[in-house]
Amino acid sequence: MSEPASGPGELPEGIPGRLMAAEIGEQPLVWRRLLTEGAEQVRTAAAAIAAHSPRFVLLLARGTSDRAALYGKYLVEIRHQLPAGLVSPSTMTAYGARPDLRDVLMIGVSQSGGSPDLVRAMQVAREQGALTVAVTNNPGSPLAAAAELGVDVLAGPERAVAATKSYSAQLLALYLLLEQARGGSVEAAHALPTLGAAVLRGQEQVAVAAERYRFAQRLVVTARGYSYPSAQEAALKLMETSYLSAQAFSGADLMHGPLAMLDREVPVIAIRSDGVGGRALDAVLPRLAETGADLFCVGSPEAVQRWGGIALPENVPEELAPVLEILPLQQLALHLALRRGGDPDSPRGLRKVTETL
Ligand code: F6R
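^ thats the input. predicted complex w/ fructose -6-phosphate below
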């Protein structure tokens, strides 16, 4: 197996970013574990979902896990052709709403499974008739206990405050769960660990890219389709580790107003995967370049050749690209934080488990 060579391993204590660097490097191994040891539990949950045949899917999450939930929403809407939505937990906690959730599948996504609002909303969903599934990195968590079905993403303990390996494991777990729930093949996912290891080896290129954002105060990340959650997650990682104002927009929404704020002072990262979403972004890229913004592409080698950036492996099904394309963006957040003098393992004001109501 080639994966271990890709990870930087854990650096000695006291070195800023050592945990985040190690956890970024571990991802191909995490995915392999989920694809092998984790396969049976995912199949069991998928079979229960198929038997229930839901008419609507709701996803419940916060922070980074909410980006994984958004990816799940794309999978449900496109692959299952069912309506899907992201829950606002406060409607069921603070506002006390009790919606009729019969025929609904509620999927909670959480690294820790520990935030009280997610746990309460999951309990309410179950009481209100939904089939409930917890996709967590902690099968012993209150969220897992609140749900009928569980999927352990098997990322192992995540110690850096900035979530990395748990995020890509959530994406992969959702892909495996939802594809199998519709009777689809997940064979293509088995290529991910090797591909991921190769992507991680491009770290030097990312470190060079980090240099260009060293003094940036604002930054925009954009993408379309399955890659839009990657844009959201990249922006979140950059905000929490490097303290810059990073906003994510779908390429379509960018055209509906925010484009006007772009100029040469606002760098733009465009995630241009291969496939429908990437092609939909193509019309936007020249408009971005016209603003004078420093444009940097992540994804399709063709787009990278034209606009500059970091090329990712070709011939990956579009719906699996998010698992790979987040890797250089996590590395970017790590390197940028270090260059700006921060410690991405413990961003100011944040804790590993955030308890919200
Ligand atoms: C960001 C991060 C947070 C968590 C969020 C949800 O890197 O780690 O945004 O994703 O606090 O936590 P969990 O997933 O434990 O419910």
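DSSP finds 17 helices and ten strands in the chain.
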